[in-house]
């Protein structure tokens, strides 16, 4: 239920392209017309509800999303955050269904969430197709019958404050908040979406209820349904559940008059701040944030501004990448042009590299922007940007939930669900002169508001340890009876059986394994590759080596320098993104079907011929050092690091983390040696899912990879046996200046092949598998309001990993939350679960399994992951059967053997040690 802030993530939702640092996408020969709304039907009910439906075959799932045309844009000082507070209250149950809605949606096996933004609040669920009607019933119910009373509001107010405190731990959030307020002095766009503590604490139930009664009604709503269904039958269900709501004969209400043309609320009121806003607060790294006013989403300048953004920063040949990152001036950062209903802004956020001052970074940024104002971009730059944006639209809308979200955002922000089609048509007409014109118009130095964050101290997360159990205990109370949940669950037909199509497998003589699954329903291809060269091979002395190797795979090869390689990939819009994890290096990618040969060419080159040029290595090394310093200022990162180092002894692969010192000792030769030893065909798997010719693709892969050789046995890592701690071990790393604490509780547990694995999945689903519908979520979040986020899980991979419970709390609530969690775990261990809980969890797991495999990219990653973990692919087909076969006795036996709150490590990272009084 995380709200959306206007960063690259929201930019993507607005269909204005992928976020920075995700390789952009395109096609070498774009069609004359590209539509994203083919097959969309708009229906407006007599009560004003707008309904958008789109039939999409391929997976037996449906996405249902409700967008309300109300967001923080409709707020003012004094009621800032009321839309976000109401979003939370919409999960607290209704007068007809007095049950936490997270439990109802969880019981349906839905992939669900909600967000509040500037122009809208939205609720979205993706479920098996047979359950779409049940979701419609639930959404219709809470549109008019939500329970908003003082007691429920008091509990959820603490949750909202916990969420805000988590944001305030981040210096970037605090800096952006200050800059935004200065840039929008007389506009709701200058307010934070989540609200302020003062306003939130002042909300009464009457005030929130009045807001709900005013705005949550059919005439303010857009219902979007995309997936595997028959439209006429679906519209009958919509009429059944929503037709009687609201006032018949009403029309959609305009919540405020949109601005016309190039006006922006950012320009209203006082002029932009000239001198930098300077925040001097505790933190790990300096930061720069700059904002330029932009026009509203319907301005004719928007397509040229998007092309400008891609030219500035969309890959390794872009202007800012060269001037800031490649030059070694910046360690991290990105750009985001945001266009909303009543205006917009262009946001630039960067972190300087170690040794670089904020004024130096700022000067480099301003120089690059001045260059693009002075000289128009080349025709090739514009052509490549257009190609990337157009293809990115196709690649970003493969899943039904992404398509539904795009339609909803267009309908509520732009006022037209066909906005993206209009945008893409206008995009093809953008010229270099248009790009220069909008740069000159909107990126003047005098129009910007800029802020500097200057850290007063850098925290290294030093821990003070205290061992032994605390004395305070709290009763977790009884769980919500799943039978009570089932009583309020709308009826739905039994889902049909799900058949997972397995890919064709072949192996080259050099040991390279390939999986190919053709899906003719999409004009795209999803790639998932994995090399068994993960962080488990890091050592304390050279920690960070694995990530640096992965991060430099695209820095150049024996046949192509960095720029040439980037032009190969970006020129056709293919995505190719390496990233390291514990057990491997994943290389995820995508392309349009016609560009698959280019995607394979790029993958082949970086896997076999990477050279790790000295200049790029030095730059990435400096950026990695800065990233470590920033992670040492994050309670979540520090808690995880200290937890691992407490559970596992020195030398164990699970407890190795990179440091500024270990990164600083690495050399270019270290990268080359590791690459030569660990990047091998016999430890690599490649999966392709999408629309391609299988025989031709096999021949191409054979041609590109058959010359890749490896000698000797593949490297391996030993994992020493680790037992549980003796008693309760408490460690409290202090991070002064933070507003919130993060706690990790756990110990070493099982691996993926443990016979208790499937029982542990069911057990964990009930315990803490979902924040809103689990026992931990019900008790700590819903009943007591102690945390915004709580979850549990078994890290059961090819090696045994830890069982972990995580908590995000206000420091004053930490100990109460910890004791409540321990008490609940003990209760589950001692008393077990009920048959109804187990059956509900099994249904949820099998339902969510179907939903999770509906995305081609996720399916490709699943095939690759199974093989990399040494599991047969048929495990995918057997998964529902194995879940169904789990018995109540097996789950309760697993609870007794796997849950042990008396012998557990508890790490809390935050501003102060938790009180035990």
List keywords for this structure.
32 helices, 917 residues, 6-stranded mixed sheet, globular, 23 strands
| Major pleated sheet | 6 strands, mixed
C-alpha Rg, in Å? 27 Å
Count of runs of 4 or more consecutive helical residues: 32
Distance between the termini: 32 Å
Shape type: globular
pLDDT averaged residue by residue? 89
Strand coverage percent: 15-25%
Helix-residue proportion: 40-55%
Q: Tell me the structural class.
A: alpha+beta
Strand order of the largest sheet: 1-2-6-3-5-4
- Taking pLDDT < 50 over at least 5 consecutive residues as the criterion, the unreliable ranges are 2-32, 257-263, 458-477
**Number of extended strands:** 23
What is the strand and helix layout of this fold?
Elements: H1 8-13, E1 41-44, E2 50-55, E3 61-68, H2 82-89, H3 101-107, E4 111-116, E5 121-128, H4 132-144, H5 150-168, H6 171-183, H7 197-201, H8 205-215, E6 221-227, H9 231-242, E7 277-281, E8 287-294, H10 302-312, H11 319-326, E9 330-340, E10 343-352, H12 358-374, H13 379-395, H14 400-414, H15 419-427, H16 432-442, E11 449-455, E12 463-467, H17 482-487, E13 504-507, E14 513-518, E15 524-531, H18 545-551, H19 562-571, E16 575-580, E17 585-592, H20 596-609, H21 614-631, H22 635-647, H23 660-664, H24 668-678, E18 684-690, H25 694-705, E19 728-733, E20 741-748, H26 757-767, H27 775-783, E21 787-794, E22 802-809, H28 814-831, H29 835-852, H30 856-868, H31 875-885, H32 888-898, E23 904-909
Parallel strand pairs: 2-6, 7-11, 14-18, 19-23
Antiparallel strand pairs: 1-2, 3-5, 3-6, 4-5, 8-10, 8-11, 9-10, 12-19, 13-14, 15-17, 15-18, 16-17, 20-22, 20-23, 21-22
Helix pairs in contact: 2-5, 2-8, 4-9, 10-13, 10-15, 10-16, 11-12, 12-16, 18-24, 20-25, 26-29, 26-32, 27-28, 28-32, 29-31
């Amino acid at each position: 239920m995380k709200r959306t802030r206007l960063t690259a993530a929201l930019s993507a939702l607005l269909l204005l392209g992928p976020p920075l640092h995700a390789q952009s996408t395109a096609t070498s020969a774009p069609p004359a017309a590209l539509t994203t709304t083919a097959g969309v039907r708009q229906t407006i009910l007599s009560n004003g509800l707008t309904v958008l439906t789109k039939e999409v075959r391929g997976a037996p799932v449906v996405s249902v999303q409700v967008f309300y045309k109300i967001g923080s844009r409709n707020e003012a000082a004094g009621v800032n955050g009321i839309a976000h507070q109401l979003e939370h209250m919409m999960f607290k149950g209704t007068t007809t269904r007095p049950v936490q809605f997270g439990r109802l949606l969880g019981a349906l096996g839905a992939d669900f969430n909600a967000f509040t933004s500037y122009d809208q609040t939205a609720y979205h669920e993706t479920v098996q197709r047979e359950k779409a009607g049940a979701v419609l019933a639930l959404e219709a119910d809470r549109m008019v019958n939500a329970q908003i009373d003082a007691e429920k509001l008091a509990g959820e107010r603490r949750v909202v404050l916990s969420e805000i405190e988590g944001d305030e731990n981040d210096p970037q959030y605090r800096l952006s908040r200050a800059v935004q307020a200065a840039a929008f002095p007389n506009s709701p766009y200058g307010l934070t979406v989540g609200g302020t503590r003062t306003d939130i604490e002042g909300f009464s139930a009457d005030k929130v209820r009045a807001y709900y009664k005013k705005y949550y009604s059919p005439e303010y709503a857009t219902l979007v349904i995309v997936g595997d269904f028959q439209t006429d039958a679906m519209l009958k269900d919509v009429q059944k559940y929503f037709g009687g709501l609201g006032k018949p004969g009403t029309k959609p209400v305009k919540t405020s008059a949109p601005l016309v043309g190039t006006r922006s609320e950012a320009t209203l009121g006082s002029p932009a701040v000239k001198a930098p806003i300077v925040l001097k607060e505790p933190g790990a790294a300096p930061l720069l944030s700059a904002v330029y006013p932009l026009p509203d989403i319907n301005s004719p300048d928007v397509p040229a501004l998007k092309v400008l953004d891609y030219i500035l920063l969309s890959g390794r040949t872009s202007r800012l990448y060269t001037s800031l990152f490649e030059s070694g001036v910046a360690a991290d950062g990105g750009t985001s042009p945001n266009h909303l209903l009543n205006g917009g802004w262009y946001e630039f956020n960067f972190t300087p590299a170690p040794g670089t001052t904020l004024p130096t970074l700022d000067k480099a940024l301003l120089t690059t922007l001045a260059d693009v104002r002075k000289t128009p971009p080349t025709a090739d730059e514009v052509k490549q940007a257009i190609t990337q944006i157009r293809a990115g639209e196709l690649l970003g809308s493969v899943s039904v939930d992404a398509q539904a979200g795009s339609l909803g955002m267009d309908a509520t922000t732009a006022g037209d669900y066909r906005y993206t089609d209009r945008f893409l048509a206008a995009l093809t007409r953008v010229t270099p002169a248009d790009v220069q014109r909008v740069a000159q118009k909107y990126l003047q130095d005098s129009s910007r508001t800029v802020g500097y964050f200057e850290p007063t101290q850098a925290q290294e997360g030093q821990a003070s340890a205290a061992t032994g159990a605390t004395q305070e205990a709290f009763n977790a109370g009884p769980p919500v009876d799943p039978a009570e949940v089932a009583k309020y669950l709308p009826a739905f037909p039994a889902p049909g059986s799900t058949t997972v199509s397995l890919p064709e497998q072949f192996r080259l003589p050099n040991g390279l394994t390939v999986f190919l699954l053709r899906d003719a329903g999409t004009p795209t291809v999803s790639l998932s590759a994995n090399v068994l060269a993960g962080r488990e091979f890091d050592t304390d002395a050279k920690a960070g080596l694995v990530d640096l190797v992965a991060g430099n795979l695209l820095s150049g090869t024996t046949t192509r320098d960095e720029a040439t390689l980037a032009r190969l990939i970006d020129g056709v819009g293919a995505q190719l993104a390496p990233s390291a994890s514990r057990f491997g290096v994943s290389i995820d990618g995508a392309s349009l079907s016609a560009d698959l040969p280019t995607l394979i060419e790029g993958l082949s080159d970086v896997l076999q011929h990477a050279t790790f040029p000295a200049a790029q290595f030095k730059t990435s090394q400096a950026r990695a050092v800065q990233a470590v310093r920033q992670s040492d200022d994050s309670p979540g990162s520090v808690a995880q690091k200290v937890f691992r180092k407490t559970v596992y002894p020195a030398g164990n692969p699970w407890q190795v983390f990179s440091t500024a010192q270990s990164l600083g000792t690495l050399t270019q030769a270290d990268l080359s040696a590791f690459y030569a030893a660990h990047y091998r065909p016999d430890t690599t798997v490649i999966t392709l899912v999408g629309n391609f010719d299988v025989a031709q693709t096999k021949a191409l892969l054979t041609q590109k990879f058959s010359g890749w050789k490896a000698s000797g046995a593949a490297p391996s890592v030993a994992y020493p046996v680790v037992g549980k701690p003796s008693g309760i071990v408490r460690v409290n790393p202090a991070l002064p200046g933070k507003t919130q604490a993060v706690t990790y509780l756990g110990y070493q547990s099982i691996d993926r092949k443990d016979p208790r694995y499937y029982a542990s999945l069911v057990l964990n689903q009930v315990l803490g598998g979902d924040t809103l519908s689990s026992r931990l979520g019900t008790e700590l979040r819903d009943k007591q309001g102690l945390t915004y986020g709580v979850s549990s899980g078994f890290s059961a991979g090819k090696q045994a990993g830890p069982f972990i419970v995580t908590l995000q709390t206000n420091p004053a609530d930490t100990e109460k939350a910890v004791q409540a969690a321990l008490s609940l775990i003990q209760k589950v261990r001692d008393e077990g679960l009920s048959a109804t809980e187990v059956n509900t969890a099994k249904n949820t797991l099998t339902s969510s399994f179907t939903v999770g495999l509906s995305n081609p990219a996720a399916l490709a990653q699943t095939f690759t992951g199974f093989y990399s973990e040494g599991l047969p692919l048929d495990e995918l087909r057997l998964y529902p059967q194995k879940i169904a076969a789990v018995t109540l006795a097996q789950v309760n036996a697993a609870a007794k053997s796997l849950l042990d709150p008396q012998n557990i490590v508890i790490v809390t990272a935050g501003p102060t040690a938790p009180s035990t009084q």
